[in-house]
Amino acid sequence: MQARWLLVLAGLAAGSHGVPAIAGGSAGASGIASATIVEPIALRSIDPLQFGVIAAARSGSGSITVDPQTGASTFSGSLAPACPHNASCFARPAQFGVTGEAGRRYRIDAPQVASAVRQEGGYATLPISAIRIWVGSGSAQDPRGLLDASGNDSFRVGGTLSVPAGTQPGIYQAELAVVVSYD
């Protein structure tokens, strides 16, 4: 009888390793359940990606690239800014604001290409390529950010709009589906 009590006491001393079953007895163990609660992450568009007002000859083609880090725009081919002295028609990167749990890292997912559709009707589209993200709290090569002590951060998006010869004048728009999530 004394040996049996020692065996039971040794099993209880083992803690969460369980109690060995004695012939005709039972065994048990305990586990842990946990959860981490965080502030939800939110994204809002502050400014859209603007390629500006572009002068393009019908017979010419070219592209405009907007750098997300510097905001600089570069024209190639026969394209030029239509109003170089009017800030309201300048090209500029999109800007997004992120809010969430202070000190947490997050990831940005955005398309690498998109198509801008002529808004006045028709089926004319212009390709947008080389869509890039710049995060001030992150790295130029890594689309991740870090929320500051207040739970805020922002990032910018740029890209290249190509305008082929024969493009109809008009307003062209594309939807850029950008998603943020905690790392």
Please describe the topology of this protein.
Elements: H1 2-13, E1 42-47, E2 54-55, E3 62-66, E4 73-77, E5 80-81, E6 94-99, E7 105-109, E8 114-118, E9 125-135, E10 144-146, E11 152-163, E12 172-173, E13 179-182
Antiparallel strand pairs: 1-6, 2-5, 3-4, 3-11, 6-11, 7-10, 7-13, 8-9, 8-12, 9-11
Pfam family, one: DUF4402
InterPro entries: DUF4402
Signal peptide: 1-21
Number of helices: 1
Helix content range: under 10%
The stretches of 5 or more residues where confidence is low (pLDDT under 50) are 1-16
Name given to the CATH architecture of the largest domain: Sandwich
Task: Examine the coordinates and then state which fold CATH places here, giving the name of the CATH topology of the largest domain.
Answer: Immunoglobulin-like
User: How would the global form be characterised?
Assistant: elongated
The CATH class of the largest domain is Mainly Beta
Q: How far apart are the termini?
A: 57 Å
Radius of gyration: 29 Å
Element pattern in H and E: HEEEEEEEEEEEEE
Q: What structural class do you assign from the helix and strand content?
A: mainly beta
Major pleated sheet: 8 strands, antiparallel
Strand content: 35-45%
Pfam families: DUF4402
Protein name: DUF4402 domain-containing protein
InterPro entries: DUF4402
Organism: Qipengyuania soli
